[in-house]
Predict the structure of NtaA/DmoA family FMN-dependent monooxygenase.
Amino acid sequence: MGAPRKLVLGAFLQTPSQHTAGWRHPRADAEASLDIDAQIAFARTAERGLFHAIFIADTLPFPMVLDPEVLSFSSRVVDFEPMTLLSALSVATKHIGLVATLSTTYFEPYAVARQFASLDHLSKGRAGWNVVTSSNGAEALNHSRDRHPEHSRRYEQAIEFVDIVKGLWDSWDDDAFVFDKASGRFFLPAHLNVLNHVSERYRVRGPLPVARPPQGYPVIVQAGSSDAGRAAAAGFADVVFTAQSDLAGAVDFYTDMKSRAAAVGRNPDHLLILPGVTPVVAPTRAEAEKKYRELQELIHPVAGMAMLSAAAGTDLSGFSPEDRLPPLPETNGDKTRQALLVEHAQKTGKSIRELYRWLASGYNTVVGTPADIADQFEEWLDSRAADGFNVRFSSLPNDLDDFVELVIPELQRRGLFHRAYEGTTLRESLGLPRPQSRYES
Amino acid sequence: MGAPRKLVLGAFLQTPSQHTAGWRHPRADAEASLDIDAQIAFARTAERGLFHAIFIADTLPFPMVLDPEVLSFSSRVVDFEPMTLLSALSVATKHIGLVATLSTTYFEPYAVARQFASLDHLSKGRAGWNVVTSSNGAEALNHSRDRHPEHSRRYEQAIEFVDIVKGLWDSWDDDAFVFDKASGRFFLPAHLNVLNHVSERYRVRGPLPVARPPQGYPVIVQAGSSDAGRAAAAGFADVVFTAQSDLAGAVDFYTDMKSRAAAVGRNPDHLLILPGVTPVVAPTRAEAEKKYRELQELIHPVAGMAMLSAAAGTDLSGFSPEDRLPPLPETNGDKTRQALLVEHAQKTGKSIRELYRWLASGYNTVVGTPADIADQFEEWLDSRAADGFNVRFSSLPNDLDDFVELVIPELQRRGLFHRAYEGTTLRESLGLPRPQSRYES
């Protein structure tokens, strides 16, 4: 056997805070969402901590029925648009990967291919695309559509969409451009490839007006955990995010995804599985538990109830925080999230207040010392439940700062985490091969 | 009367070169198009020269019928996507405006509003949007459409589109966000505005997940010079780009646009008219003329013919460089460009080679000393033919460097150009008021 496996860590940066009350913490920067100086500071801290990548979720916070009074207790209502933010961060960082979420349901493949290819060139090979199919029906209301497409159709569309985008990224061979001042020849004509994609859904000719990305293709990330989501990820993803609340479930998911990858002829090592985790860390357990308790008590009941309603896919504001969760109607939104909620409520018998506090904390919160956090990471890595984690921070910058100061050194001491970035691109840092062009023989 | 009027100057940065052969110049950086370090250097030179803004055209270089052999002599085939590039430049510059071109024909108003609002926050108030309706039918082929929309319908759509975008920018009042940690209130509910736009063409609910832009609205630029384009610009634009080849025509255009603005109830001083100009400058006239001649001789006949075909809206490759321009079929593309070409050909009797050399040089090339360039700028400003210029550079970085070294000091010496940026936003630098929200009483 060679060296022990090392963890891949992503920093999931949601501003002003992942936890609904995180922005109210005394050390939190409540105004960070549209402050580029704050965002640059977060990204540089994550880079100092050698996180492989920053992940930016897409803010789609607005429920189908808007109630401004309820919404006004939510901090996740405005932020930078992901592609513009990561482009700005690309020149303020040097090594860290930059992963943005973009929906295949409401954009055109040509536009998506072009912006990600551009970001990959801007960052010299550090771009990643988190492919989502949009679980939020409210998006349809902003895109001149009457209805959100049905769940399984969205995945069919996503698979075709990613295939078109990859085809467009191959528009120019890696060695197409010669810039020959003497002859006047800018590129070699035989190295231009025209996609000519035609289907019922899409007609995209190409070529893309961007050279092949430095990584060949930016890293593809996928987070759906339904059967359709898993099948899609096994086919096209390099990295899978997943919400797992316990080790046994995480092992099942990991095993399933690796075997799905093998079944479609891929090397399972080239599909990285990163469960989400929310560490609440302090030098002692007592301090960590106090920190967690204080955070949970900061949740405003109106915000808590709104969050629970969103996860449930139905309005629960008529219930009291002391009530139990009622039976829920079937959702056309995020089925995985609803199922996780129902399962947890049944298993624990929690009240609505306890449920929104559980939701607010994230599905896999680890409260403890740096050694406690490292113990769980090590256990999941050794149990083949994870190749690493997508780390979420209750509050920014404080929880990110604490993680980099306290947990990263402990992981490095145990030989579980790198001490420098490997290579120059995100693919190299993740140990993933550079994909060949479909036109290469 | 107060101080003399001062010029507004935009730096129109097309990489690797505005002139089709510019990249072949010995001092040119032929590889700049996808090199962020080169782009940052250009932007910083423009900022050192106190240009009010950088303008980025959208690369839509691919003709309806692709001939890779012909295309391979063209340098304008790949570059950064404009929104991602300007986002990157926003953190590498401090004062200069950042104007990107985006089409109202192939994007959704919600996505456009969101990215420009984000860029305005990233740049702390320096974003501008050059609204185009897309003259290139080849775009339809990449967006699952069979046909490019007809010319006048595109402008109707653009007017509605801009109105929706402005409505989305007003989603949050300027003082909406209170970030109140004590009460848990993030924003004031009465200061959220939901657009609810419904028409045959668009249904957009809002709100935008971005706070109101620092400038209220990013600066709106328009460049169409047809009657429909002028009417649209008089209604919604802050800045108009225009292709004018002589003083008399420029005065007519300027007068027409200012009176159109007044006719719709606007202050004509708040609609800035910037004709394009391509200076070829050197310390002496003989040097400048030599520089120009050498550049024109670098045009490869295949590239020249392709450029002329694009402007003509029809394939001219069957003709010889010695031939005269044949009668042209009506175009559904850029009518203004075709009409300018036909008028110039008729007036001058030029051969096809002379015509593509004329096209390559830009419609308003001024060859001479710094004093010659300043003379023309001063004459156009004093004659009310221009409020300033959109300056094009045959070759980068050399022509930008020469302009900043030689022409800017001459303009400043004459009191025609500022010696420092006024204010902090692009609107302040241009002397334009900050627009009120439509919801403000």
In short: The mean pLDDT of chain A is 93. The first strand of chain A starts at residue 8 and ends at 12. Chain A touches chain B through 82 residues (CB under 8 Å). Chain A is about 40% helix and 15% strand.
